[in-house]
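so i finally got all the pieces together for this one. its two components total, 710 residues if u count the protein bits. some of the lines might not be protein, just check the labels. i wanna see the whole assembly predicted at once instead of chain by chain like last time, that was a mess tbh
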Amino acid sequence: MEKQNTHLSISEISGFFWQIDQKIQQLHTCSSEDFLALNGAFKQFYKQSKELESNAKELFSLVSGSDGTVLFQQLKLFYLQLETDQISLSHFFRDSKKSMEGISLSIDDSFFPLKNLTQDLLTLKFLVANKQLNSLCNDEAKIGGLIAESESILTAVAEIRNICVSSAKLIAQFKLGYSNGVDVFDVQATAHLEAVDEILEYSHSAIVLFGEKYEGAKGMLASLSAKTEQTTNSIGDIVTKLQYQDIIRQKMEHIQASHKGLIRELDDKAGHNDEQINSSIFSKIRDIAELQAAQLIHANKEYQSAIEVITGNFTSIGQNLGDIVQLCKEFTNGNVENEESHFLQLSNKLERASKVIHQSIQFSKKSIAYLQGIIKLTADFLDSIEKLPSQLESLNERLQNVYCLEGLQSNTEKQITELLQDLNSNRQIIVTSQIKTDQLLETLASSVSNNAMLGKENGSLVKVADELQAVLVKLKEKSSKVENILSKNLQLGSTVKVSIASSVEACKYYDFFERVIVEIIGELNQISEMVASNRESPSSIGDNLKNIKRLYTMESEHNIHENVINKNMGNQENDSNTDTSQQSNIEFF
Amino acid sequence: MSKYILIIDDSETNLMLLEAVLEQEGYQTILARNVADGLKAMQAQKPSLILLDLLMPKRSGIDFLEEMKQSNHFDDVPVFVITAANDEHKPQVMKFGVAGFFTKPVDINALMIKVKEILNS
């Protein structure tokens, strides 16, 4: 190739370098704008991604963390306690009903004997009065004693009869109280047990759901951890690559500094026509041009790689954050038809459970009150007839003693004897009923006493209700947090997605940077070709570039510098055997 | 109370980067774009740590270290040098007793580990 240096004057070469310097200045501007925009975007994504990750972690930890474990245990304990209470209540209602029915039947057994006794005692009263009248015709000496004895018997008869009448009334009261309440008690107890059954089902499904979520959260935390690690790595890469703006800036400043030195030198020598000086400077220009081209190629590679890595990692972060949002959404609500979170569904179900338990407490209180009423009526009846058998026994003995009811008897005496047999028979029935009722009452009273605590302040049901309330408060708190976090994450996720897309699109100088670098290298190539014929001896190449090396501060610049020198030294050695025209075809790409 | 870190760097991108990462970790940051601003900021509030760039226009990081050394008041403030320069400045810098020397591009995770270590020690 024909030597071309003769086509360019030193001033023209100086002008070329000025143009190149202007272009490098443009590169500074575009690199600064691109990187500052990316940096601003990064700052925002970094904050948002950390917030999103932290939210997601908090979300999963709400269930799988120690607080969640405690809540899960509380829920299970509540279920077990409610199940136990359900069985107790069921037995209590069943046994109470059975006892009441038994008492009712047993009291019924006394009703007719008491009625009979009332009638018999009235008859007895007349017979005793009749006997008293008859005795007036007998021995006067005995009249006083008999009358007194008869009066006393009549008083006893009247007393016993009153007891029979009032006891019969108590039976009627019992029957009224029993029949008024027993159906309601039965129906309500059944309804109540069914409601508790439903709550048990709710609670069981809540435990299953919580269990699934509890296990799910652990898995989600592992996925989140993997996503977080990916994001952290992407962030690390972005941070590393963003620093290249400063590195590239410094490299271009070093190139500019070397150009400025060269321009000064060219300007100094512009007026000289000394062939040797010109030859020396042309040789230097060629070496510098080649070196700077190599430095710029490297800088461009770093720039392109940095932008690609940054935008690629932005996209990757966006994808990861989108995945995290999806994880959160799936975790809180797998059912797309229902927008409520699982936590809200759970707390709503348990809220209903809480109402049923409070109704249960009220019902238990009413049931206990009703049963205590029955117990009182039964006890009043038993108190009433407590002395009846002994009084009848005593009456029997007295009648036997007073009226000598053995041997030959008058008609009245016969009637009294028959009546006494009837009284005795009824007394036996009452005694049997009394014993049976007493036993049943004891059973019922004991059962009521044992279960009376159910609805009281420190009773089991109240405790269960309190436990449930505590679970509910926590669940609601969690539900509210979950809703809040989810809403934040959804918002963050969509914001980040849009921001990342626009940030990637905003890298407007990506192509521009490369185009300008290509132009600069083209111009450096051109300069190099034009001054190719003036290459000095190999020993001077290192000297030509020595001063430039001092401008470099970075290892990579030094390496490129050495490579270019070594390459040229090699080329110059080859030059001795080849046509020098081949040198002008050196390409830097 | 959060730790306060002074960052001195002429590169806007580096300042923004370090600010973003450090603040996310809960540290307070003050940014200075040159040595003079860095010295002023340090006088106004004593930092817990200084992240210092070496190669800056007008006055370099080494100038900052020299001024800092002159005042005994800041002897206990650790300095991490972060520079794009090769290791040739390292021996000179280490004479000032800097706590760390990082070459750009810095591995941010490694830097954060060192920052936490030094601020927790």
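Helices of chain B lie at 12-24, 35-44, 61-70, 90-94, 108-120.
DSSP finds five helices and five strands in chain B.
anyway lmk what u think
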